[in-house]
Structures are given as structure tokens and as C-alpha cells.
């Protein structure tokens, strides 16, 4: 970055539109956004429309560039600070929170990746600070499935003059209607092929939406199929490409910790929203044959206590992992497993205790239930986490 650009980045950092991250004023901003996003969450769920307005509001407070380094105009947020924001957003509209998680994870690692050309790293960061530009990794394919299970991508990048031509498709492309940058996992047409990331602007000719996202939960994430039909990108946009198995491929331990904490926080936030609805419903529902609120019954008090115990455990685990206290980095996947499964259990308890009202589409609990179940689809999945933990335990005997 040249001197004028660097000075401009510092000026933007000094003029951030949000209060200091660890302050009562910042917490008030988050509370305001939580209330605002909650008011439209049902509409986004029913329509499946992408929450452009929510993301624009986050950009108004410079929250889309929260994990961009301060020297580049971002906030340079720590994991506990990012966790604070994700919790607030997820409690109101989790699809928005998931898009935000992907943005935070990418920018947290981007500037420390020496395989990316420096000018492209800084350009992506600059776009996020100035315009609220979103970026995400596009990895999953219709034929291959999740790359975490192994295999080479079918998406092909072929040399063409001084650039690359990309053909293929990606599914589960979270945030696709709002993305400016696509980090596309592909393989080259070389022998042997190299595998990695080609950086593509969303508005490049040949990039289009294929099968639309039509999911049980998290319906507003815009996780459509994205098709690449002879998409030409410059040679330098092969930003992180190497032979399969070379050192440095994939997330490092700190990246896994960030992913485990922030992804889990989305679904913990959903469980908190479900808990709040259940508590309010039980406190105000007074059956005629009881003559008192359901909350007066010991069974309902115990039910809410069970839910709160699960969410207490989640809070302690997430905070401890975010602060790297008593949780080793290699244990982070177990945090994801534990927190997301306890979030699902908490919502299931509320659904069972509330009966028909909990499953009625007139109430938000059924939406929370559909959303929280999506925790199971994120890498690493439950079986992979448990197998890795068991393998490590046996190896350590």
C-alpha cells in the first residue's frame, strides 16, 4: 500500500461510525440493530429474500469491515469482539449473521496469507471498508459435495492468454446475492493440476445463478448455486493455488477456532431467541382450567431451567474459546459440536413443552427450530468431529 492509501486507511479508522468496540455505547448500537432486525426476520424467512437492508445497516456502522486490520481502515477486531457482534445479530436474524460470519472469517485471515498478491489483498479490504463489499469462499459442488471429505474440485480453471477461464458450478454459496468477491475453489488444467482459490468479481460476465436456495431453514442466506460459464479472470487472480497436499493448505488452528466460535454463535443466538419466546409465552399463557400462567407450574419452571442450563454451558464454552482460556486450539471443533448440539436441544425442549403453539407458523418458535437444525450441515460435521477426537485420544494413549 502506498503512503496516501495508508494515510487514508488510518483516517477512516479514526473516523469510524461505531463507538469503541468494548463500550456501553457499542453495546447500545448492537441492541438497536438486534431489535430492528428482529422486526423483519419473519418476512425474510417467508419470502426467502436476501437481507440487503440489514447488511446496509451494518455497513452504516462499519460492521462489515470489523475484522479488516486497523491499518487498512477496519476495526482490527479480536475474536471476543467479533463474537459480541455475531451474538447480537444472530439473536434477531441468523441468516444475516451467517453472512457476517463468512465476512469476518475471510478478512481475519486474508492479510496474513502471503500467497495472495498484496495489491489484491488490500483491494478486497479497501472495498469492504469503503463500500461494505462482501466476500466468501465458494467450495461445495453438486457432484463432489463438501471438500472437507476429500477429492478434487470439478470446477476447472484453464489458461487462456494472460488469464484464466473458469467453468463449473458451486452450491451452498452463502450470501451470493450480496457478494462482490467470490473466492472460487478450483483446479487448474495443468499436469499435475494445482488446486486452490481463483478470485472472481461477482459481476464478471459468465457468472450467473443456477438452482435457487430453497431450504428448510436459514432461508434468507441466498445460498444459491453459482455457475461459471467461460468466466475470464486475470492471471494474478489465481491467488492461492498449489499442488494438493502442499503445506499451508486449509485452515490453521487459529482459523479453526475462529470458525468454531463464530459459526456456533449463530445457532446459539437462535436458541436464545427461542428461549426468550418460550419464557414470554409461558409467562402470559393462562389456561382457563389453571387460572394462572403456565410459568407458575413447577414443570414449566424446570423446563426453562433446563434450557437456561444448556445456554449457560454454551456461553461459558464460547467465551472460554474466544479468549483462549482453558480450551486448546485443537479442541475448537469439539466446541462447535457441543454448542450447536446444545442449541438444538434447547430449542427442541421449548418446542416439546409448548406443543401446538410452538409449531404454529403464527409464532416464531417453529422458525427458530428450522433455523437451528441447520447447525448440523456446517463443516466439520458431527461424525468428523467425533472421529477426529477419538482418533487423537487413542493416539495419545
From TrEMBL:
Q: Domain Acyl-CoA oxidase/dehydrogenase middle: where? A: 141-231
Residue intervals of the Acyl-CoA dehydrogenase C-terminal domain: 263-379
Task: Tell whether Ribosomal protein is among the UniProt keywords.
Answer: no
- Molecular function in Gene Ontology: flavin adenine dinucleotide binding; oxidoreductase activity, acting on the CH-CH group of donors
Protein name from the UniProt record: Acyl-CoA dehydrogenase
**InterPro entries associated with the record:** Acyl-CoA_DH_C (IPR013107), Acyl-CoA_Oxase/DH_mid-dom (IPR006091), Acyl-CoA_Oxase/DH_mid-dom_sf (IPR046373), AcylCo_DH-like_C (IPR036250), AcylCoA_DH/ox_N (IPR013786), AcylCoA_DH/ox_N_sf (IPR037069), AcylCoA_DH/oxidase_NM_dom_sf (IPR009100), Mito_Isobutyryl-CoADH (IPR052547)
Lineage, broadest ranks: Bacteria, Pseudomonadati, Pseudomonadota, Betaproteobacteria, Burkholderiales
**Record keywords:** Flavoprotein, Oxidoreductase
Acyl-CoA dehydrogenase/oxidase N-terminal domain location: 31-103
Amino acid at each position: 500500500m502506498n503512503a496516501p492509501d495508508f494515510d487514508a486507511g488510518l483516517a477512516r479508522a479514526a473516523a469510524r461510525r461505531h463507538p469503541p468496540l468494548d463500550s456501553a455505547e457499542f453495546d447500545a448500537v448492537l441492541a438497536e440493530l438486534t431489535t430492528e432486525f428482529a422486526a423483519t426476520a419473519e418476512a425474510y424467512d417467508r419470502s426467502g429474500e436476501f437481507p440487503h437492508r440489514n447488511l446496509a445497516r451494518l455497513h452504516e456502522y462499519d460492521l462489515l469491515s470489523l475484522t479488516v486490520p486497523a491499518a487498512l481502515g477496519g476495526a482490527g477486531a479480536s475474536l471476543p469482539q467479533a463474537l459480541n457482534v455475531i451474538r447480537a445479530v444472530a439473536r434477531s436474524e441468523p441468516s444475516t449473521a451467517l453472512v457476517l460470519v463468512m465476512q469476518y472469517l475471510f478478512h481475519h485471515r486474508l492479510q496474513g496469507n502471503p500467497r495472495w498478491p498484496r495489491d489484491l489483498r488490500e483491494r478486497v479490504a479497501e472495498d469492504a471498508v469503503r463500500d461494505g463489499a462482501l466476500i466468501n469462499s465458494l467450495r461445495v459442488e453438486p457432484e463432489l459435495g463438501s471438500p472437507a471429505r476429500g477429492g478434487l474440485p470439478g470446477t476447472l480453471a484453464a489458461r487462456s492468454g494472460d488469464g484464466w477461464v473458469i467453468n463449473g458450478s458451486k452450491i451452498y454459496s452463502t450470501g451470493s446475492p450480496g457478494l462482490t468477491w467470490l473466492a472460487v475453489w478450483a483446479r487448474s488444467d495443468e499436469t499435475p493440476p494445482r488446486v486452490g482459490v481463483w478470485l472472481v468479481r461477482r459481476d464478471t460476465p459468465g457468472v450467473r445463478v443456477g438452482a435457487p436456495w430453497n431450504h428448510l431453514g436459514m432461508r434468507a442466506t441466498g445460498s444459491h448455486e453459482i455457475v461459471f460459464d467461460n468466466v475470464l479472470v486475470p492471471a494474478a487472480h489465481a491467488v492461492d493455488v498449489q499442488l494438493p497436499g502442499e503445506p499451508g493448505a486449509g485452515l490453521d488452528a487459529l482459523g479453526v477456532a475462529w470458525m468454531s466460535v463464530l459459526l456456533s454463535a449463530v445457532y446459539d443466538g437462535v436458541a436464545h431467541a427461542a428461549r426468550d419466546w418460550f419464557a414470554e409465552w409461558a409467562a402470559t399463557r393462562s389456561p382457563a382450567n389453571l387460572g394462572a400462567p403456565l410459568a407458575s407450574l413447577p414443570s414449566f419452571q424446570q423446563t426453562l431451567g433446563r434450557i437456561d442450563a444448556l445456554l449457560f454451558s454454551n456461553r461459558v464454552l464460547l467465551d472460554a474459546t474466544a479468549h483462549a482460556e482453558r480450551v486448546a486450539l485443537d479442541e475448537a471443533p469439539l466446541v462447535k459440536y457441543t454448542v450447536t448440539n446444545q442449541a438444538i436441544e434447547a430449542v427442541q425442549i421449548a418446542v416439546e413443552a409448548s406443543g401446538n403453539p410452538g409449531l404454529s407458523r403464527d409464532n416464531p418458535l417453529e422458525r427458530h427450530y428450522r433455523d437451528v437444525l441447520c447447525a448440523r450441515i456446517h463443516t466439520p460435521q458431527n461424525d468428523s468431529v467425533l472421529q477426529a477426537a477419538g482418533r487423537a485420544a487413542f493416539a495419545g494413549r
